[in-house]
Amino acid sequence: MLRCTVLERRVGTLGRRSCTKVLAFALLMLESALGSGAQQPGPPNLVVITIDTLRADRLGCYGYRNIKTPRIDALASDGVLVENAYTPVPLTLPAHASLFTGTYPVFHGVRDFTGDTLSEERATLATMLRSAGYSTGAVVASAVLEARWGINQGFDFYSDSFPSPTTQNWQPIAERRGDEVVRESLLWLERNSRAPFFLWVHLYDPHDPYTPPSPYDRQYATRPYDGEVAYSDENLGRIIDALKARGLYDNSLIILLSDHGESLGEHGEKTHGFFVYDSTLRIPMIFKLPGTAGPRARRIAGPVRIIDVIPTALSILGLSGKVRTPEVQGRNVHSALLGKASLSEVTSQAESMLPFYQFEWSPLLSIRKGRFKYIDAPVPELYDTAADPGEMRNLYADQKALALQFKAMLLGEVARFSSRKADVGPAQSMDPETFEKLLSLGYIAHGRRSAAQVRGRNLPDPKERIQVYNLIFDGTLAARNADYGRAAKLLSEAVRREPVSLVAHFQLGVVYRVTNAFDRAEQEFRKVLELRPGYDLALRRLAEVHMAGGRYQEAERAYKEVLAQSPDDAAVHFSLGGLYVTVDRWDEALAAFRKAQALNPKDVLIPMIISRILIKKGDLAGALAAVQQALNLKPDLIAGYETALEIYQKQGRAAEAEKTARILERLRTKP
């Protein structure tokens, strides 16, 4: 009635019956104009959400009742839940490399978080989808996934901006809270919601340290990990709500999974990365398929592996065979998700190289098939995971023949899936900023030694070193929280138990340096250099100790030893410049800072320091030019205008001084 009344006002009185006919005709013409578009939407969108360090058995849809995870549970009700999904490595960077290449770490070459980058030769999911016309965007929450590691390949937009941690107190700031990640993700979605798009959202909150925000800190006061999971559930819900509000939910493939789990004390491991038990290898995995007629509230037993995600997603998106996937080592489980096929038995590899690369203990490799899982270590392990899901009863001695079959299978699979080409990206050196970022995230990270450097040695079994590892981990955590007394006690005990532990000596040296125990700090860093001659991070710390103690010649020698290995290290040239200023060697200081500026031209502090040195030397014109370089980088730099004002006054340039003073007054009163 209302629509006819409005129509009559626009075109004149037609009569009720005529009005109805006109409206019917208009609707018919509108449907014709829309054609099949309303019934057949465009290519499906893809949204991948990875929640770092999330255990499958901490979600309601996986049977856990001590956390409320309504939004994840609702997503599972709208799709397919995989009961047994597995990661090939319990570390963030290599696990995501496997997720987005569909290959095992032995192929893509990213084995931990401090070594090789992902090669440009590797085809990523983002690269595949971009070639198919998708807009691609990613927002990551942790510095361990910075673009420098190569994981950004194929993304038109990749947000990985993190502040540099302060080395004095090691506060965990090289990460972003979930609400910030979601906010930026939704801004990208608002600008790129024309189909098709691929959005990857990385939430990091369940990673240690567990510090859930309000109200989850109170609700889960005795279980802070659970509080972080509940907070992640809330942020997942914000993404789902935004997709629904924009009418994008139905036509989107949404894949929710984790990169790895968390031990939470099982097998003596407090977090993850050290062992390859299912507490860290089993992950949640949920597929919400596009379309309103897709499967709902389905559960499949699995197994499904992280490397299976790419071929499955491409099949669901209708892109199988249409994009480059020659390297993918996973299988397509689309039919199983639809209930049209059962999953055949498949092997699943896993590894942890962290004990080897960071501590020079034995690496750990594992393989599972069916109900059995074998772990290759100096003390081998075999588990019946169906009867013993906690992996508490090692069957190796009782079923040695079966274990040896699995070991042979493991060696064969590693050989089969390893890359035949050296297509690993360029190694990233462990510079101080990267070291501090990883340390702030709880990673005990040092530049790793190669296999050749430890070949032929009988390496300890990580199971026999878990207590030492925990002492180092807890000591580092205590230092990060400024509890230096406890840190020194724990790390000293680690050194006592493992006298050849480079990591323990280094971390203890850092604690002594921060607490001004310079003699002890020097002793620890010299021990590190004895264990690894020429180790640049130890040389830098040793130089800092000498500087703090007024031993400038020794500090200079240490810095120059670093430069002999890395002549283009801007940070060391900067530190040398500071040393030369301290001892009034102004020409050498100027040369050092100019070298640092050439290597790091975007650092606004360096030209300001150069300007002060030139004022000291009486070169006012040169000082003014240096100030202008700083102001070009940061036009509202108050210190720059203050220095310029000082120079103009010394030169007697009253007009320029007055103009600069007005600018300064405006900047100082700026809200």
Helix and strand topology:
Layout: H1 2-11, H2 16-34, E1 45-51, H3 70-77, E2 80-82, E3 85-86, H4 92-101, H5 105-108, H6 125-131, E4 135-139, E5 157-159, H7 178-191, E6 197-203, H8 216-219, H9 224-245, E7 252-257, H10 278-281, E8 282-283, E9 285-288, E10 298-300, E11 304-305, H11 309-316, H12 334-337, E12 348-352, H13 354-359, E13 364-369, E14 372-376, E15 381-384, H14 400-417, H15 432-440, H16 451-454, H17 466-480, H18 484-497, H19 502-514, H20 518-531, H21 536-548, H22 552-565, H23 570-582, H24 586-599, H25 605-617, H26 620-633, H27 638-651, H28 654-668
Parallel strand pairs: 1-6, 1-7, 2-10, 3-11, 4-5, 4-6
Antiparallel strand pairs: 2-9, 3-8, 7-9, 12-13, 13-14, 14-15
Helix pairs in contact: 7-9, 17-18, 17-19, 18-19, 19-20, 19-21, 20-21, 21-22, 22-23, 23-24, 24-25, 25-26, 25-27, 26-27, 27-28
Features:
8-stranded mixed beta sheet; alpha/beta; Alkaline Phosphatase, subunit A; 4-stranded antiparallel beta sheet; globular; 671 residues; 28 helices; 4 domains; single chain; Serine Threonine Protein Phosphatase 5, Tetratricopeptide repeat
* Gross morphology: globular
Q: Which strand order spans the largest sheet, edge to edge or round the barrel?
A: 5-4-6-1-7-9-2-10
CATH level-1 class of the largest domain: Alpha Beta
**Rg over alpha carbons:** 30 Å
Q: Tell me the number of helical segments per DSSP (H or I, 4 or more residues long).
A: 28
CATH architecture of the largest domain: 3-Layer(aba) Sandwich
